[in-house]
Specification:
Blueprint lengths: L4 E4 L2 E4 L8 H17 L21 E5 L2 E4 L32 H6 L5 H34 L8 E4 L5 E2 L5 E2 L5 H4 L3 E4 L17 H8 L14 H5 L9 E6 L7 E6 L8 E6 L4 E5 L18 H15 L5 H7 L2
Helix pairs in contact: 1-3
C-alpha cells in the first residue's frame, strides 16, 4: 500500500510512504482523471477496470499462527482505528472442535486456535475493514465523477471480488478452500434501466466476461463457459437457470480439488460435493448443515448415496466441458 512501483504504459513510477502515496487513493485519483478525460470525447464508449490491493495483506506478520505467519494490511491513515470496536465474527464453525470429517492435510495443518491466535485474527479482520473504507471512498469518488460528468445513467457498474476468506472457520485462515466463506463473494451490478432488486440464482466468475460482452453489445470470438447475467437483471426469479456450478482449485497439486456446488434449483438442492486429488471426499447438505460441520461423504442414510453418485457423475462432465456444453451440464 506504500513504497510500491507503478507501471504507467511502460514508464515505472516509484511511490513512497507519504499519506498521498496510499495505493487505493492513487488508484482513485487516476480513475477519476480517466473519467474526466473520456468525458471530453463523449461519443466513444469506454471500459474501466479498477482492482485495489485492499484488503490483501502487505505488512509484516502480526504473529506466528499454528499454520504459519499471519500478516496484515495497511489501512489509509485517515481510517486507522475506525473499526477498533468491531468484533471478529464467530459463527458455529469458528475454531471448530472436531474436524475429523475434513481431509488429512487439512487436519494436520489446522490445530485449535488459541486466544492469542484469535486476537491476531481479530486485528487482521479490523485492518481489512479499515482498508476497505478507502475502497468505499474510491467508489464514491468514481460515482460522483460519473454524476458530475453526466454519464452515470449511461454507465454499468459491477462490483465483486476474486475470492472469499475463512477467518477462523474450521480453525482455518485461508482462501481457495471448498467452504462457503471461501467460494462465495459479493456481486453487485448497477445497470441503467433495471430496478433495484436481488436474486438467489447462482452466478459464477465465468459469467462476468459474457455479461460485460452482452451489455456492450459485443460478440465474443469463442463461446464462453459462463453465461450472461443480463436476463437476471430483467427477471431475478428467472427459470430455467443454472442448477449447479463447478469448483476447481489446483487439481494438479497434492492439495487440489474439484467439486460441484448445487443451487436451490438443483435436484440435489444446496449440496456441495468435493473430490480431492488425494482421493478423499467431502459432501455437505447445506440445508441441514449450513456451516459445513459434518461431512456426510460416508453416510449411507437416504438419500445421500444416490445424491453423491449423481453429483460425482456430473462433476466428471463439468471438469472437462467447454462453452455451451458446460451450460447444458449446469442446467441438468
Amino acid at each position: 500500500m506504500f513504497d510500491y512501483r507503478f507501471n504507467d504504459n511502460g514508464t515505472v513510477l516509484q511511490y513512497g510512504h507519504a499519506n498521498e502515496d496510499y495505493l487505493t487513493d492513487v488508484l482513485s485519483t487516476r480513475a477519476v482523471q480517466f473519467l474526466r478525460d473520456t468525458e471530453a470525447n463523449d461519443a466513444q464508449p469506454w471500459f474501466l477496470y479498477i482492482a485495489p490491493l485492499a484488503p490483501h495483506y502487505d505488512k509484516p506478520p502480526l504473529c506466528n499462527m499454528n499454520f504459519g505467519t499471519l500478516s496484515t494490511v495497511h489501512p489509509a491513515p485517515r481510517h486507522v482505528g475506525s473499526a477498533a470496536s468491531i468484533p471478529l465474527p464467530q459463527p458455529p464453525s469458528f475454531n471448530e472442535a472436531d474436524i475429523s470429517d475434513k481431509p488429512l492435510a487439512f487436519r494436520n495443518r489446522y490445530s485449535p486456535l488459541t486466544p492469542t491466535h484469535i486476537g491476531c485474527l481479530t486485528t487482521y479482520f479490523r485492518d481489512q475493514i479499515e482498508s476497505m473504507r478507502a475502497v468505499d471512498d474510491l467508489i464514491g469518488a468514481v460515482i460522483a465523477q460519473l454524476q458530475d460528468g453526466g454519464e452515470l445513467n449511461d454507465t454499468v457498474i459491477i462490483f465483486t471480488s476474486d475470492n472469499g476468506l475463512l477467518q477462523g472457520e474450521h480453525r482455518a485462515h485461508a482462501k481457495i478452500l471448498p467452504y462457503e466463506e471461501s467460494i462465495r463473494v459479493p456481486l453487485y451490478i448497477r445497470a441503467p434501466g433495471y430496478p433495484a432488486q436481488s436474486t438467489t440464482r447462482m452466478s459464477l466468475n465465468t459469467d462476468l466476461a459474457p455479461t460485460i460482452m452482452d451489455l456492450a453489445q459485443a460478440a465474443p470470438g469463442l463461446t464462453p463457459d459462463g453465461r450472461s447475467l443480463v436476463p437476471l437483471l430483467a427477471n431475478p426469479n428467472r427459470t430455467p437457470w443454472r442448477r449447479q456450478g463447478l469448483l476447481m482449485v489446483r487439481t494438479g497439486q497434492s492439495e487440489g480439488y474439484a467439486g460441484v456446488r448445487a443451487s436451490e434449483l438443483s435436484s440435489t438442492p444446496n449440496e456441495v460435493y468435493i473430490e480431492h486429488t488425494t482421493g478423499e471426499k467431502e459432501f455437505y447438505d447445506l440445508t441441514k448443515d449450513p456451516y459445513q460441520l459434518n461431512s456426510v461423504h460416508n453416510s449411507n442414510k437416504k438419500p445421500y448415496p444416490s445424491q453423491r453418485a449423481a453429483l460425482a457423475t456430473l462433476l466428471a462432465k463439468l471438469k472437462t466441458c467447454a462453452g455451451a456444453t458446460c451450460q447444458s451440464f449446469e442446467d441438468q
